[in-house]
Amino acid sequence: EKVFETAISGFKAGGRIVELYSGVGAMTLPLVEKSSFVHAVESWPEAANFLKDNLFRSGFTNASVEGTTAEDFLERVDKDYCEGILLDPPRSGCSRKVIDKLLFLRPERIVYVSCNPATLARDLKNLVGNGYKLTRITPFDMFPQTTHVESVAFLEKNKTGI
After folding, report:
1. Which one of 100, 101, 126, 160 has the fewest beta carbons within 10 angstroms of its own beta carbon?
2. pLDDT tens digit string along 129-145?
């Protein structure tokens, strides 16, 4: 729960947010309460359907769910579609295609939730080296006395160009 609260705190109230790799919506529902609109994207059909049901039962009308891959969704999105993007990819991190599309879209904020420090470092290097600044990273020791750590990284678009 602390991880989700921390991730959601990275967005301003009232913004339009895209949530990639949304799963069943553990972060989507609280994000919808804060945002003007949330577009959730999840490639696993059962999870996407479960999230749609949860949003409907909760009475939210300022959200949509798309059952597709992050790559396919981002191919159809124009610049200025959203103020921020929330990423919670699998352990393998984001594909190069997703990173490239994020760099093209250039949202004001990216919040990246990761369970793999190695892929987080790889993806952050690509984002920070190309127009984003890392403003904060918060680790969470979810499984004490193990090597597992969950991290939330906050990035903002450089105002001075690349």
Report:
1. 160
2. 899 999 999 999 988 88
